[in-house]
Amino acid sequence: PWTPTKIISTGMITPEAMAFLWLCVDARLPIVIYGAMGTGKTSLANTVAMLIAPDATIALCQDTPEMRVPHENVVNLFERKARTAGGESGAITLEDLLAHSLRRSAQYVTINEVRSRKEVYAFAQAVALGHGGITTIHTDSVKGVFARLKGYGVEEPLAENVKVIVGNVLLTSIRNGKRVTLRRTKGIWYIKRLENYTPIYAEVFKYDPLKDALVFQRDEEVLKEISRRLYVEEDVERLLHELNLRAMFLRSCISAEIFDAESLFTHLKEFHGNPEEAIKNVINLGREEAQLQTIR
Description:
Helix content: 40-55%
Number of strands: 9
Number of helices: 11
Largest sheet: 9 strands, mixed
Structural class: alpha/beta
Strand order of the largest sheet: 3-2-4-5-1-6-7-8-9
Order of helices and strands: HHEHEEHEHEHHEEEEHHHH
Distance between the termini: 29 Å
Strand content: 15-25%
Low-confidence stretches: none
């Protein structure tokens, strides 16, 4: 499966942007990833879900087995079609799976993609109750996400619980004289509120085509709100320190070529216990790997 380090190494997203999403996950802020088919929505959702704290419980609800989240406490739940032709006997819908997840007190609910009114509504209700949530939706803009929610009949106060929007796109570029298609995250937006179903938001990360990277756009209001969700007292500087630590950890893992799920999850568990020590250990591992490559 895709891991945070593997997807960062493709250039889709930067370590800082992934670290920000990691903090949003810890704060249980619902995340919706939008984009067209083939833009890497599900792959990105898979990697973000891997960053959920090791001791947290995840309910992974899917109609088809697209996502495989490497985590110790994940419950995989799958939709089932009706057993009788033209009937509903034996059918298990995504809505049923979400309801089951809430009864099991899952701390996070993840859906590979919401495609119907019932699915969207069930997801919106779950995150409104305080559960963390990650899902994807087929549309082309932040406004498009909320237009879809409104079209599905989700009331504005319920839709307002969706706080973090991530947009993925396909870009064409010339690399080594050849035309290539690149999957890129074009932005990360924090939804402050809805006004007559129009999203009022801050663009926290913005894609810079010249750098081919996401650039951080500091917004004090957003940083204060996230820090209030994470800490006993509002502390923006502590939040930024955490952001930089997590970005450094991810960069160090990439340098040490820690891309596989099992190895990365082991280091993620260590990071949750002692961030600074985990970073040191990964850096040392990277040095050892570099020495081995030199010897070879």
